[in-house]
Amino acid sequence: MKLLKRVTAMAMASMLTLSMAACGGDSAKDAAATGGAEDAAPAETEAPAEPETTPAEEETAPTEDGTEAENTEAPADTAAGAGGNIGVCIYKFDDAFMTTYRNALQEILEGKGYTVTFMDGKNDQAEQNNQINNFIAQEVDALIINPVMTSAADQIIATVKDAGVPTVLINREPTAEQMSAYDKLVYVGCDARQSGTMQGELILDTPNKGDINGDGKVSYIMIQGDPENVDAQYRTEFSVKALTDAGMEVEQLDLQRGDWDRNKGQEIAQNDLAKFGEDIEVVFCNNDDMAIGALQAIQGAGRTVNEDIYLVGVDALDAALNEVANGNMTGTVLNDAKGQAAGAVDAMEALLGGKTYAAGEQSIYVDYVKVTPENVADFQ
Ligand code: BGC
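Above: the input record for the complex with beta-D-glucopyranose. Below: its predicted structure, written as tokens.
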């Protein structure tokens, strides 16, 4: 029943959106351009009337009286092909990688004629829950959600399921079991185990396989992302596993959470360099932003990457690509924001077209790619 209601509402929303577009209505774009952050309702606010978007008002949406009947197919196709209102929730705007990702999403969605509104979760799950509820109240056609906390996945999934909104989760992967609760939900991201393994391989590819001082073991520090995210857990585990699988002995001098943040990466590396000095042979960072911070600390301590210390990250941010090219990072791993954004939009359109996803088939992965001084130019 709910689905029927949504489908009809979607068709109406699409028609209204189209006419808005025809009138040159650019309000959502403007909102996205201003970041939407300032416009976000404070956590306590319930009101759905957010100023940054103008999805079609749905007073005209059919009611529960059953008269809107059987027709589920055609309107969904219309919505898929003809734009529509898309709500995007990002866990926080102030994240280097997610900024690249957000820009890619905006370009693709707007290029396809969708009206898109981005909301900044400000790393606060309660705030993001409000944003999701507001989008639902505004009857968006689909949601793309980068959860603040993967532990909130059950609640997020229950909410979008109850509203019948097709939803693509991105970047922070819930379990297959959690996703199986709703068949109009899919995750698009990467398999973080692969990126961890590639980081280990980058170290194995160095002339001494990471054992700079030749004492028979690779001594490293691990600067971890938010350990709540599976990306952080897997990169931490699989980077080291690649070394031990290759027969290397390893010694973990320190492991600390840097929460994906450049300043924290810098601080952790600085303290560790002061404490462990020459003993540190490898600095593993779960992402590039922390690696750039660590690089500042490494240079501040008078150490030289690829001579007396190795440094690897993940993401292939522009800044990191430059450092790989300059020899100041040993390597990084492309976390393909554009590929994931394109995949997320494809999955969203499939959902809008009526596709459902079976349990166990709700994760769509984009490959990571190793970036070294040899191939870095291909990514710049
Ligand atoms: C990226 C990090 C980013 C995080 C956000 C990871 O996949 O590598 O740079 O901070 O996602 O969840």
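Notes for the reader.
Residues 95, 97-98, 171-172, 225, 229, 231, 260, 287, 289, 314-315, 335 surround beta-D-glucopyranose (CB under 6 Å).
The CA atoms of residues 101 and 337 lie 5 Å apart.
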